Amino acid sequence: MNCEILNGTQLRDRFRFFTTPATVDRGIFHNNSGYINVTLLLSTLRTTIETQYKNILIRENESFLDLDQSIPDVPNNFVRLRTNRGSLQAKRVVFVPGPYAKNISATLGFDLNMTMWELPNLYFRLNSPTYQAPTWFFAGEDQQTLFNGYPIEASDRPGFMKISPEFIQFPDDPLIYPKDRRGSATNFDYFTKQTQEWIAHYATYVDPHNYWYDNTSTCLATFVPDNGFIIDHLPSNVNYHSKIVMYAAGWGMKFAPVWAELLTYLVSDTEATSPYVKYLPNFGFNIEGRVIDSQTTTMSPFIPTTTTATPKGWGTTSIVLTSVSVAIVVILVAIFIVRKCKVIEKCAAKDPVGENTGLIRSP
Fold it and tell me: Which CATH class is domain 38-114+224-361?
Protein backbone atom coordinates (compact mmCIF):
# COMPACT_ATOMS: atom_id res chain seq x y z
CA MET A 1 0.00 0.00 0.00
CA ASN A 2 3.05 2.27 -0.13
CA CYS A 3 2.72 3.21 3.55
CA GLU A 4 5.51 5.16 5.23
CA ILE A 5 6.53 4.34 8.80
CA LEU A 6 7.35 7.47 10.83
CA ASN A 7 9.01 7.62 14.24
CA GLY A 8 7.95 10.07 16.96
CA THR A 9 10.37 12.77 15.88
CA GLN A 10 9.28 12.56 12.24
CA LEU A 11 5.64 12.77 13.29
CA ARG A 12 6.29 15.94 15.29
CA ASP A 13 8.33 17.55 12.50
CA ARG A 14 5.94 16.76 9.69
CA PHE A 15 2.59 17.15 11.43
CA ARG A 16 2.96 19.86 14.04
CA PHE A 17 -0.74 19.55 14.85
CA PHE A 18 0.23 16.51 16.93
CA THR A 19 2.25 16.96 20.11
CA THR A 20 3.16 13.23 20.13
CA PRO A 21 5.02 12.78 23.42
CA ALA A 22 7.84 10.28 23.72
CA THR A 23 5.37 7.50 24.45
CA VAL A 24 4.20 7.76 20.82
CA ASP A 25 7.04 6.18 18.88
CA ARG A 26 5.44 5.23 15.58
CA GLY A 27 3.01 6.41 12.95
CA ILE A 28 1.89 4.99 9.62
CA PHE A 29 1.40 7.53 6.82
CA HIS A 30 -0.36 6.94 3.51
CA ASN A 31 -0.04 9.82 1.08
CA ASN A 32 -3.22 8.87 -0.81
CA SER A 33 -5.49 8.75 2.24
CA GLY A 34 -8.30 11.24 2.57
CA TYR A 35 -11.95 11.61 3.49
CA ILE A 36 -15.33 11.28 1.79
CA ASN A 37 -17.76 14.17 1.72
CA VAL A 38 -20.80 11.93 2.15
CA THR A 39 -23.38 14.66 1.60
CA LEU A 40 -21.77 15.83 -1.64
CA LEU A 41 -21.21 12.27 -2.86
CA LEU A 42 -24.84 11.28 -2.26
CA SER A 43 -26.06 14.43 -4.00
CA THR A 44 -23.78 13.78 -6.97
CA LEU A 45 -24.87 10.15 -7.28
CA ARG A 46 -28.51 11.14 -7.17
CA THR A 47 -27.96 13.76 -9.86
CA THR A 48 -26.13 11.14 -11.93
CA ILE A 49 -29.11 8.79 -11.69
CA GLU A 50 -31.62 11.51 -12.57
CA THR A 51 -29.63 12.71 -15.60
CA GLN A 52 -27.90 9.59 -16.94
CA TYR A 53 -29.85 6.58 -15.65
CA LYS A 54 -33.49 7.25 -16.39
CA ASN A 55 -34.23 3.55 -15.92
CA ILE A 56 -33.47 3.72 -12.17
CA LEU A 57 -36.55 4.62 -10.16
CA ILE A 58 -36.20 6.15 -6.67
CA ARG A 59 -39.16 5.90 -4.27
CA GLU A 60 -38.74 7.95 -1.10
CA ASN A 61 -40.55 7.99 2.24
CA GLU A 62 -41.67 4.39 1.94
CA SER A 63 -41.51 1.87 4.79
CA PHE A 64 -40.64 -1.79 4.30
CA LEU A 65 -43.00 -3.90 6.41
CA ASP A 66 -42.40 -7.55 5.51
CA LEU A 67 -42.30 -10.14 2.74
CA ASP A 68 -45.43 -11.74 1.33
CA GLN A 69 -44.88 -15.35 2.42
CA SER A 70 -47.74 -16.55 0.19
CA ILE A 71 -45.45 -16.33 -2.86
CA PRO A 72 -43.89 -19.80 -3.37
CA ASP A 73 -40.11 -19.82 -2.98
CA VAL A 74 -39.35 -21.62 -6.23
CA PRO A 75 -36.81 -20.89 -9.01
CA ASN A 76 -37.74 -18.08 -11.40
CA ASN A 77 -40.45 -16.83 -9.06
CA PHE A 78 -40.40 -13.33 -7.62
CA VAL A 79 -40.27 -11.88 -4.10
CA ARG A 80 -42.99 -9.48 -2.99
CA LEU A 81 -42.04 -6.76 -0.50
CA ARG A 82 -44.96 -5.21 1.35
CA THR A 83 -44.65 -1.55 2.23
CA ASN A 84 -46.80 1.19 3.69
CA ARG A 85 -47.64 2.20 0.12
CA GLY A 86 -48.56 -1.20 -1.23
CA SER A 87 -46.04 -3.73 -2.53
CA LEU A 88 -43.00 -4.15 -4.75
CA GLN A 89 -42.14 -7.32 -6.66
CA ALA A 90 -38.65 -8.34 -7.71
CA LYS A 91 -36.62 -11.28 -8.94
CA ARG A 92 -33.75 -10.19 -6.66
CA VAL A 93 -33.61 -8.02 -3.53
CA VAL A 94 -30.67 -6.24 -1.83
CA PHE A 95 -31.05 -5.12 1.79
CA VAL A 96 -28.60 -2.51 3.13
CA PRO A 97 -30.32 -1.60 6.41
CA GLY A 98 -27.43 -0.09 8.35
CA PRO A 99 -28.23 0.06 12.09
CA TYR A 100 -31.64 -1.53 11.43
CA ALA A 101 -30.12 -4.81 10.22
CA LYS A 102 -31.19 -6.71 13.34
CA ASN A 103 -34.76 -5.41 12.95
CA ILE A 104 -34.80 -6.42 9.31
CA SER A 105 -33.37 -9.85 10.09
CA ALA A 106 -36.21 -10.51 12.56
CA THR A 107 -38.74 -9.58 9.89
CA LEU A 108 -37.05 -11.91 7.40
CA GLY A 109 -36.99 -14.84 9.83
CA PHE A 110 -33.61 -15.00 11.55
CA ASP A 111 -31.78 -13.25 14.39
CA LEU A 112 -28.64 -11.32 13.44
CA ASN A 113 -26.19 -11.12 16.37
CA MET A 114 -25.38 -7.43 15.97
CA THR A 115 -24.80 -4.68 18.52
CA MET A 116 -24.17 -0.94 18.25
CA TRP A 117 -22.12 1.83 19.76
CA GLU A 118 -23.71 5.28 20.00
CA LEU A 119 -21.03 7.90 19.37
CA PRO A 120 -21.18 11.72 19.62
CA ASN A 121 -20.05 14.31 17.09
CA LEU A 122 -17.50 16.63 18.76
CA TYR A 123 -15.76 19.67 17.26
CA PHE A 124 -12.86 21.59 18.86
CA ARG A 125 -11.47 24.97 17.81
CA LEU A 126 -7.96 25.19 16.43
CA ASN A 127 -5.73 27.76 18.14
CA SER A 128 -4.65 28.86 14.67
CA PRO A 129 -6.36 28.11 11.33
CA THR A 130 -2.93 27.73 9.72
CA TYR A 131 -2.23 24.43 11.47
CA GLN A 132 -2.61 21.48 9.14
CA ALA A 133 -3.52 17.90 9.93
CA PRO A 134 -4.21 14.91 7.71
CA THR A 135 -7.12 12.50 8.05
CA TRP A 136 -5.92 10.52 11.06
CA PHE A 137 -6.69 7.69 13.46
CA PHE A 138 -5.10 7.29 16.89
CA ALA A 139 -4.91 3.90 18.62
CA GLY A 140 -3.83 4.09 22.24
CA GLU A 141 -3.10 1.42 24.79
CA ASP A 142 -6.72 0.36 25.35
CA GLN A 143 -10.21 0.58 23.84
CA GLN A 144 -10.91 3.86 25.61
CA THR A 145 -8.19 5.72 23.68
CA LEU A 146 -9.34 5.36 20.08
CA PHE A 147 -9.86 8.68 18.27
CA ASN A 148 -10.00 9.93 14.71
CA GLY A 149 -10.12 13.30 13.04
CA TYR A 150 -10.24 15.14 9.74
CA PRO A 151 -8.47 18.10 8.10
CA ILE A 152 -9.84 21.53 8.90
CA GLU A 153 -11.06 21.91 5.31
CA ALA A 154 -13.30 18.88 5.83
CA SER A 155 -15.12 20.50 8.75
CA ASP A 156 -18.62 21.91 8.42
CA ARG A 157 -17.78 24.21 11.38
CA PRO A 158 -15.34 26.97 10.28
CA GLY A 159 -12.32 27.10 12.56
CA PHE A 160 -13.25 23.85 14.29
CA MET A 161 -11.86 20.37 13.73
CA LYS A 162 -13.92 17.24 14.21
CA ILE A 163 -12.28 14.88 16.71
CA SER A 164 -14.29 11.73 17.27
CA PRO A 165 -13.99 9.28 20.17
CA GLU A 166 -14.41 5.77 18.77
CA PHE A 167 -15.40 3.91 21.93
CA ILE A 168 -18.20 3.74 24.48
CA GLN A 169 -18.06 4.11 28.24
CA PHE A 170 -19.38 0.61 28.96
CA PRO A 171 -18.29 -1.87 26.24
CA ASP A 172 -20.35 -4.60 27.90
CA ASP A 173 -23.53 -2.53 27.55
CA PRO A 174 -23.94 -1.76 23.82
CA LEU A 175 -27.21 -0.90 22.10
CA ILE A 176 -29.21 -3.65 20.42
CA TYR A 177 -31.83 -1.68 18.47
CA PRO A 178 -31.78 1.91 17.14
CA LYS A 179 -34.93 2.70 19.13
CA ASP A 180 -32.77 2.34 22.25
CA ARG A 181 -30.42 5.17 21.29
CA ARG A 182 -30.07 7.54 24.19
CA GLY A 183 -29.23 10.78 22.44
CA SER A 184 -26.13 12.93 22.41
CA ALA A 185 -26.68 14.22 25.95
CA THR A 186 -26.22 10.75 27.42
CA ASN A 187 -22.67 10.24 28.74
CA PHE A 188 -21.72 13.50 27.03
CA ASP A 189 -19.60 14.60 30.00
CA TYR A 190 -17.68 11.34 29.81
CA PHE A 191 -16.92 11.66 26.09
CA THR A 192 -15.98 15.32 26.45
CA LYS A 193 -13.62 14.69 29.37
CA GLN A 194 -11.92 11.76 27.62
CA THR A 195 -11.43 13.79 24.46
CA GLN A 196 -10.19 16.86 26.34
CA GLU A 197 -7.62 14.75 28.18
CA TRP A 198 -6.44 13.25 24.91
CA ILE A 199 -6.13 16.71 23.30
CA ALA A 200 -4.11 17.98 26.28
CA HIS A 201 -1.56 15.23 25.74
CA TYR A 202 -1.49 14.78 21.98
CA ALA A 203 -2.94 17.82 20.17
CA THR A 204 -2.09 21.00 22.06
CA TYR A 205 -2.71 23.12 18.96
CA VAL A 206 -6.41 22.51 19.68
CA ASP A 207 -8.32 24.35 22.42
CA PRO A 208 -9.88 21.58 24.55
CA HIS A 209 -12.24 24.02 26.27
CA ASN A 210 -13.67 25.65 23.14
CA TYR A 211 -15.85 22.99 21.61
CA TRP A 212 -19.18 22.40 19.92
CA TYR A 213 -21.22 19.27 19.61
CA ASP A 214 -24.19 18.22 17.53
CA ASN A 215 -26.98 17.76 20.05
CA THR A 216 -29.45 16.61 17.39
CA SER A 217 -27.82 13.37 16.32
CA THR A 218 -25.38 10.63 17.20
CA CYS A 219 -23.55 8.07 15.09
CA LEU A 220 -24.51 4.39 15.40
CA ALA A 221 -21.59 2.06 14.67
CA THR A 222 -22.61 -1.57 14.12
CA PHE A 223 -20.71 -4.74 15.01
CA VAL A 224 -20.97 -8.50 14.82
CA PRO A 225 -18.94 -10.49 17.40
CA ASP A 226 -15.91 -10.96 15.14
CA ASN A 227 -15.92 -7.26 14.07
CA GLY A 228 -16.29 -8.26 10.43
CA PHE A 229 -18.61 -7.33 7.58
CA ILE A 230 -21.57 -9.30 6.21
CA ILE A 231 -22.19 -9.32 2.46
CA ASP A 232 -24.06 -12.49 1.63
CA HIS A 233 -27.28 -14.20 0.61
CA LEU A 234 -29.58 -14.75 3.56
CA PRO A 235 -28.97 -17.86 5.72
CA SER A 236 -30.01 -21.03 3.90
CA ASN A 237 -32.84 -21.83 6.33
CA VAL A 238 -34.63 -18.54 5.53
CA ASN A 239 -37.31 -18.26 2.84
CA TYR A 240 -36.15 -16.65 -0.43
CA HIS A 241 -32.53 -16.86 0.76
CA SER A 242 -31.19 -17.39 -2.77
CA LYS A 243 -33.00 -14.28 -4.01
CA ILE A 244 -32.10 -11.85 -1.23
CA VAL A 245 -28.68 -10.37 -0.46
CA MET A 246 -27.83 -8.31 2.63
CA TYR A 247 -24.98 -6.03 3.62
CA ALA A 248 -24.68 -5.46 7.37
CA ALA A 249 -22.25 -4.56 10.17
CA GLY A 250 -18.87 -2.88 10.27
CA TRP A 251 -17.56 0.62 9.54
CA GLY A 252 -17.79 0.19 5.78
CA MET A 253 -18.26 3.65 4.30
CA LYS A 254 -14.62 3.79 3.22
CA PHE A 255 -15.16 0.57 1.23
CA ALA A 256 -18.43 1.66 -0.43
CA PRO A 257 -17.35 1.12 -4.08
CA VAL A 258 -15.97 -2.37 -3.36
CA TRP A 259 -18.98 -3.41 -1.25
CA ALA A 260 -21.31 -2.19 -4.02
CA GLU A 261 -19.40 -4.24 -6.58
CA LEU A 262 -19.57 -7.34 -4.36
CA LEU A 263 -23.33 -6.91 -3.91
CA THR A 264 -23.74 -6.56 -7.66
CA TYR A 265 -21.96 -9.86 -8.30
CA LEU A 266 -24.07 -11.59 -5.65
CA VAL A 267 -27.43 -10.25 -6.76
CA SER A 268 -26.66 -11.13 -10.39
CA ASP A 269 -25.48 -14.65 -9.44
CA THR A 270 -22.06 -14.03 -11.00
CA GLU A 271 -19.96 -14.07 -7.82
CA ALA A 272 -17.86 -16.95 -9.21
CA THR A 273 -16.43 -14.49 -11.74
CA SER A 274 -15.73 -11.79 -9.15
CA PRO A 275 -12.10 -10.78 -8.54
CA TYR A 276 -13.01 -10.97 -4.83
CA VAL A 277 -14.31 -14.54 -4.94
CA LYS A 278 -11.62 -15.91 -2.62
CA TYR A 279 -12.59 -13.39 0.06
CA LEU A 280 -16.35 -14.07 -0.02
CA PRO A 281 -16.26 -16.72 2.77
CA ASN A 282 -15.08 -13.95 5.14
CA PHE A 283 -18.35 -12.07 4.56
CA GLY A 284 -20.79 -14.94 5.16
CA PHE A 285 -23.66 -15.30 7.61
CA ASN A 286 -22.38 -18.80 8.39
CA ILE A 287 -19.35 -17.57 10.37
CA GLU A 288 -19.80 -18.72 13.95
CA GLY A 289 -21.55 -16.22 16.20
CA ARG A 290 -23.03 -13.99 13.50
CA VAL A 291 -26.53 -15.49 13.67
CA ILE A 292 -28.26 -16.48 16.91
CA ASP A 293 -29.48 -20.05 16.56
CA SER A 294 -33.01 -19.53 17.86
CA GLN A 295 -34.97 -16.41 18.71
CA THR A 296 -36.00 -16.30 22.34
CA THR A 297 -38.52 -13.52 21.85
CA THR A 298 -41.16 -12.66 19.31
CA MET A 299 -41.03 -9.05 18.24
CA SER A 300 -42.74 -6.68 15.89
CA PRO A 301 -39.68 -4.72 14.77
CA PHE A 302 -39.64 -1.00 14.18
CA ILE A 303 -38.84 -0.34 10.53
CA PRO A 304 -37.93 3.24 9.59
CA THR A 305 -39.31 5.21 6.70
CA THR A 306 -37.33 4.33 3.58
CA THR A 307 -36.95 4.91 -0.18
CA THR A 308 -36.69 2.56 -3.20
CA ALA A 309 -34.78 2.72 -6.53
CA THR A 310 -34.65 0.34 -9.49
CA PRO A 311 -32.85 -0.26 -12.78
CA LYS A 312 -35.37 -1.28 -15.44
CA GLY A 313 -34.99 -4.80 -16.68
CA TRP A 314 -33.77 -7.72 -14.62
CA GLY A 315 -37.38 -8.46 -13.84
CA THR A 316 -36.72 -6.14 -11.15
CA THR A 317 -34.15 -5.75 -8.42
CA SER A 318 -35.38 -4.03 -5.25
CA ILE A 319 -32.78 -2.46 -2.99
CA VAL A 320 -33.76 -1.59 0.59
CA LEU A 321 -31.77 0.80 2.79
CA THR A 322 -32.18 3.01 5.82
CA SER A 323 -29.45 5.65 6.17
CA VAL A 324 -27.57 8.25 4.16
CA SER A 325 -24.19 6.49 4.08
CA VAL A 326 -25.60 3.12 3.07
CA ALA A 327 -27.66 4.91 0.43
CA ILE A 328 -24.39 5.53 -1.39
CA VAL A 329 -23.64 1.80 -1.47
CA VAL A 330 -27.09 1.01 -2.82
CA ILE A 331 -27.13 3.71 -5.49
CA LEU A 332 -23.77 2.39 -6.69
CA VAL A 333 -25.26 -1.12 -6.83
CA ALA A 334 -28.15 0.16 -8.96
CA ILE A 335 -25.73 1.88 -11.34
CA PHE A 336 -23.44 -1.17 -11.49
CA ILE A 337 -26.42 -3.40 -12.32
CA VAL A 338 -27.39 -1.17 -15.23
CA ARG A 339 -23.80 -1.12 -16.50
CA LYS A 340 -23.46 -4.89 -16.08
CA CYS A 341 -26.53 -5.40 -18.20
CA LYS A 342 -25.12 -3.62 -21.26
CA VAL A 343 -28.22 -4.18 -23.39
CA ILE A 344 -31.13 -3.94 -20.96
CA GLU A 345 -33.73 -5.19 -23.42
CA LYS A 346 -31.76 -8.38 -24.12
CA CYS A 347 -30.81 -8.96 -20.52
CA ALA A 348 -34.30 -8.67 -19.03
CA ALA A 349 -36.90 -11.32 -19.69
CA LYS A 350 -40.60 -10.54 -19.82
CA ASP A 351 -42.22 -11.36 -16.50
CA PRO A 352 -45.34 -10.44 -14.53
CA VAL A 353 -43.40 -8.21 -12.17
CA GLY A 354 -42.99 -5.15 -14.38
CA GLU A 355 -39.94 -3.28 -15.59
CA ASN A 356 -38.64 -1.39 -12.59
CA THR A 357 -36.16 -2.08 -9.80
CA GLY A 358 -36.68 -0.42 -6.43
CA LEU A 359 -34.33 1.27 -4.00
CA ILE A 360 -35.70 2.07 -0.53
CA ARG A 361 -33.84 4.52 1.71
CA SER A 362 -34.59 6.69 4.69
CA PRO A 363 -34.87 10.46 4.20
Answer: alpha beta
